[in-house]
Structure formats: C-alpha cells, structure tokens
C-alpha cells in the first residue's frame, strides 16, 4: 500500500483537519455502533480512545455503559467527582444507559447514591443495574425505585452493605426483569418472596451466600432457565415446575434439601454443577430418569461419593474434583461421554477406583493428582498400583495425566504393575528438584508410556529447581546400550526429543520443557 492510499484525506468543510479519513473504516461506522463498541470496553480503556483522533475525543462520553470502580482512582474524592460529573453530563444531554456498574469497596457517599440511582433508573432508563457495595462498616438502603423499574432487564446486587428492602414496602414491579443476582446480601425469606413474586419473566436467578435466607420457593416461575445458589446452613430449595430449567448450580446443600426434597423431573436440564453437596449413593439411582437430557455434570468436593454407580446415556462431560481423604469406588456407564476429568489431593492411600462401562469411541480424559508418598515400600507399591489401575480403566480414551508432588522419599519399585498404559501427555510439576526424582520418573514410566512429558522448571514460589541442561542431559541418557537395574521399560523406548509446542524448532517454552517420546509399540 502506497503512502497516498493511507494518507488522511480532509473534508473541505473541516477547517481543523479532524474529519474522518476515507480509509478509516472504523470511524465511518454509525455513531450508535461506535458507542456500542465502546460499551464493550472497560471504562478506563474507553476513555483512552480519546487519543485516537480529534473525532474520538468525546465519543466515549455517550457510550451505553458506565462503569465506576473506586479501585481505579487514587482518592475517594476523585472517584466521587468523576461519578457525579459523568452522570450529570448524561443527564444534561438526555442520554440513555444500557448498563450502569457501581463497584465501591471503601466508604461511600450515601447522599450521592441516593441522588443518582433514581436518576439512572428513571431518567436514563437503565436496562442493567450492577451495584457492588462491600464496605462492611456502613449500610446503604437501596432506593425503592430499584424494585419498580419498567426498564430493568438485569439487576445485580452484591455486598452486605446493601439493605435490600423493608418488609413493609409496597409491592415489587419488575415486569421486564430477566436476570436477578443477589450475592452476599442480607435478606429474609419474606423479602425474597416479595422480590421474586414481582419478577414474572425471570429467566436467570443467582443467589450466592444470602445471609438469612432459609427457604427458596420457586412455585410460580416457570421461565427460569439458569439457577445458581450457594446456601448457608440447611436452606431448602423447592421447584414447582422446573420444565424450562437448563443450567443448575448448587453449593453447600444437603441432597435432602434439594434433589430428594423436590422429587421432580428436570426434562431440559443440560448442565448440573454441585459443590460441597451431600450425595448419598442412592442419589445416582435416579440421575438418568430425573435428568434425561443432562449433557455436563460437575461434582466438586461432594460428600457421599465413597461408592456410587452412575448411568446416563446423555452425559458427554463428567468432571469430579475431590479432597481424596476417603477411598472412592465408582462404576460409570456413560456410552456417549466425550470428556472425563478427575482431580484431587492424592495423599496415600486415597486414589480412586473408577471403572467405565460402555464409552464413546473417541473421548478424552484428564487426571490430576497431588501425591505425597511415604518411605515405606508397601505404601508406595499400593499408590503406584492404584494409579496404574486407574489408568487401565481409562485406556480407551486419550489420557492426559498431571502429577503434582507434595512430598516424596527415595524408593525402588520393581514389580506389581500391569501392562503400561499409553498416555498422551504426562505433566510433572515440581520435578527434578531433588536427587530422588530420576528414581521417581522410573516408577512413573513403569506404569505408563507417555508420548509427551512436560516438566516445569520451577518449584512453588518461583524458585528455579534445576538447570535445563541437566534435565536434558539426564533425559538423553535414557536410551542406553544395555538395560540397567529396574529400568525395564527402556527396552520399549525408541527415541526422545526436546519439543516446543509452538514451533518446529526445539526450545524451552514458558518455564516448562517438553520431551517427545517414541515407544516401540506405537510404531
């Protein structure tokens, strides 16, 4: 492209030369589109666009989203001054807002908030209201207009500093509200019922750590598609008709307070995530019938998983994350599964025993284990044997194995393993930081044959654990002329190379080093 084609062409009627050039496609877009683009940026980045050209100097003033965060200002005075000047400009120009975000984690000005929130909702017709007030030393009573807006489509209220409503308030009228999020607020059952009854079109509801909430009854809300709840104590959750529900997140709840209590079918539920939920073994007996369309199931730190049988023809993604303080025994029959993930603190002897029934022909698995081995050979034998058995149960999938060391003592493991399992990626974190690591690598390669081994070069805290040259030198010696000692797997190792995943050249990438291994059976 020649210089003439990129040179700015000035409009004949523009004396100061600030007209938009023919080649400046972005500036030629309609004003409402430019303001929408600016609304996708943070407030700070949107203001920076004033440096693009003269025509952009004040463009950010009319964007459809305003975002006020006190962390972006050196002093509280600057923050509140910027807020008032910005909103006054919108009011003077009779501008509307799509989204109003206020995030203040310090002491805030009650008078200014009481003044401007009604203006934002009524005069500027805000469609989305996000109020985050995290200063625990003060309490701000929300203006009642927040609960009587005909324009609001989304409302996010967060922080114990917010006083939501008085029980004596008038009826709530949020007839167009589709999304409501109440996070870390003080609210009673009576007030919640009053709010939710005034939202006939609610589709997305999120209740995270709501203090004082003991019962969540959704009896007349048949449009809810996405529901998330992190409860305190034994909050009861009731659905009258979960027909439309597609996504469900529950944390800190007893199954008797939710699944068993409802005894409902969720015919269109596709995503279910449970954190710290008590799940007796019989809970899984009705998974297939209660959730016939469930596509993804996530279980994090749930109790009652010591032994369970999960059968589902719809599940495609299954993720289990645990503190492995108890032995887990599971049989999983998911013929259409595409991805399985298990992670947990594998302190001896707690490695899971997982057996798969029918599975898809092409699926991936990810196993992440924190391990801490004792000096006893019997302890180590048991742990490595369980890991070998776990991998054998996944041998029909493309396996990715990540091992994160917490503690290890030097030991020699010579027998007791089944045939090594082919693993696509073996990631070893905090490795080669002690003289016993070559011995530990020997143990791992007796139970699996990885195509790629990834090692990080740093310990916890960012301390470099070993020079790259020493690691490469050791790995290059793994193809000797004769098999020595317990390195019986060397007879199957054909070649080893240092690999960079980002280019064809061999080099170190982002604090890790990757080796590509070629095994005899894979040729």
TrEMBL record:
Pfam families: F-box, LRR_At5g56370. Residues 23-59 form the F-box domain. PANTHER family: RNI-LIKE SUPERFAMILY PROTEIN. This is F-box domain-containing protein.
């Amino acid at each position: 492209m020649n210089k003439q084609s990129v040179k700015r062409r000035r409009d004949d009627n523009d004396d100061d030369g600030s007209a938009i050039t023919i080649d400046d496609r972005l500036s030629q877009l309609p004003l409402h589109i430019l303001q929408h683009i600016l609304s996708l940026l943070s407030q700070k980045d949107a203001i920076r666009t004033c440096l693009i050209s003269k025509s952009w100097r004040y463009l950010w003033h009319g964007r459809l989203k305003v975002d006020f965060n006190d962390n972006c200002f050196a002093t509280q005075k600057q923050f509140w001054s910027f807020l008032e000047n910005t909103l006054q400009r919108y009011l003077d120009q009779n501008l509307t807002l799509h989204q109003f975000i206020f995030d203040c984690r310090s002491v805030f000005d009650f008078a200014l908030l009481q003044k401007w929130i009604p203006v934002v909702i009524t005069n500027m017709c805000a469609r989305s209201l996000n109020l985050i007030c995290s200063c625990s030393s003060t309490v701000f009573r929300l203006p009642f207009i927040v609960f009587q807006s005909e324009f609001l489509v989304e409302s996010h209220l967060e922080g114990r500093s917010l006083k939501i409503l008085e029980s004596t308030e008038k009826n709530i009228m949020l007839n167009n509200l589709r999304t409501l999020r109440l996070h870390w607020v003080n609210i009673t059952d009576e007030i919640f019922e009053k709010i939710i009854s005034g939202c006939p079109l609610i589709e997305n509801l999120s209740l995270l750590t709501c203090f004082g909430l003991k019962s969540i009854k959704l009896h007349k809300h048949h449009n809810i598609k996405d529901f998330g709840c992190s409860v305190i104590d034994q909050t009861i959750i009731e659905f009258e008709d979960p027909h439309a529900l597609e996504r469900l997140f529950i944390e800190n709840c007893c199954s008797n307070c939710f699944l068993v209590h409802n005894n409902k079918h969720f015919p269109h539920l596709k995503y279910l995530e449970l954190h710290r939920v008590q799940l007796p073994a019989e809970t899984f007996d009705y998974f297939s019938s209660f959730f016939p369309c469930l596509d993804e199931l996530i279980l994090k730190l749930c109790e009652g998983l010591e032994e369970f049988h999960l059968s589902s023809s719809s599940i495609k993604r299954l993720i289990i994350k645990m503190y492995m303080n108890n032995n887990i025994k599971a049989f999983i029959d998911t013929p259409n599964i595409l991805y399985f993930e298990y992670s947990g603190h594998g302190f001896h002897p707690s490695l899971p025993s997982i057996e798969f029934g029918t599975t898809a022909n092409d699926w991936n698995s990810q196993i992440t284990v924190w391990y801490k081995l004792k000096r006893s050979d019997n302890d180590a034998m048991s742990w490595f044997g369980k890991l070998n058995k776990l991998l054998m149960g996944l041998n029909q999938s493309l396996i990715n194995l990540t091992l994160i060391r917490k503690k290890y003592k030097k030991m020699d493991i010579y027998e007791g393993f089944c045939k090594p399992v082919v693993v696509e990626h073996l990631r070893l974190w905090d490795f080669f930081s002690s003289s016993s690591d070559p011995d530990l690598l020997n143990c791992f390669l007796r139970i699996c044959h990885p195509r790629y081994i990834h090692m990080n070069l740093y310990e916890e805290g960012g301390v470099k654990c070993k020079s790259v040259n020493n690691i490469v030198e050791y790995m290059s010696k793994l193809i000797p002329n004769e098999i020595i000692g317990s390195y019986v797997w060397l007879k199957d190792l054909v070649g080893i190379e240092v690999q960079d995943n980002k280019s064809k050249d061999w080099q170190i990438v982002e604090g890790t080093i990757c080796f590509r291994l070629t095994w005899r059976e894979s040729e």
